[in-house]
Every structure is written in structure tokens, then in C-alpha cells.
# Entry
Amino acid sequence: MNNRLRKITIVGGGTAGWMTALILDMVMSRTSAPKDRPRICLIESPNIATVGVGEATVPRMPRTLREAGIAERDFFRETNASFKLGVKFCNWNTDAKGNRIDYVNPFAHGQLLYGLDAAEYFLRFGNGDRDFTA
# Structure
């Protein structure tokens, strides 16, 4: 009797579902011959709209794209993505006067641009007339 896994079903699309399918496919392509790989089936509802904003990936995303053979520049162009530097928690706490305050949790401390972190540089100078592909 052959107990080989023949099919993997992922229920739910969106970023999580599609990234799961991508990573499973990448791992299986490195570890199994094509004839031995299970078929991946992703099921998503046609009745649930995509979020479209606020979705984010983790700092490991550029590495995942490279491992999948996807150029980061192409990914950004095709998905209309942007870099996300952290997560903002609105009304996280209150200050000494009782006013609500927000908190931004950065994913990592990146390289400085002329002595400023990327977010501070953007707030001060904007992006000019350049986009990501420039």
C-alpha cells in the first residue's frame, strides 16, 4: 500500500493562503521529484473581497521572493506593493494628561539615509518625483 501524500488542500486564499502555497511548492520542489510531489489545491471564496490595504508581510519577504525566483522589482510593480516599516497601534496608551497616544513598532532598524532613518527621511523630504522603479 502506498501511503504517499497525494494532495494538499489550503482553505482560504489571500496573502496567507497564497504564500503558504508558494512556500510549500518551493520546499517540495527542493525535496521531491516532480512525480512524487503532492498536488497543491487552494480554495478561496469568490464572494469575499480582498482586503486591499493594511496587509503586510514580514521582513523575511525579500528572501522568500528570491527563493521563489521572483524579482522584488517585478513583485512590487505587479502587485502595487510598498515597503512597510512597522505596525502602528492606534490609541495604544495615554499620556500624562490623559490624551490617547499611538505607538509604532518598527520591524527592524534599517540603514540610515544621510543620517536619518527611512521613515524620518520620507517625512522630511518625501519621494520627490521618483517611484520605486527609478
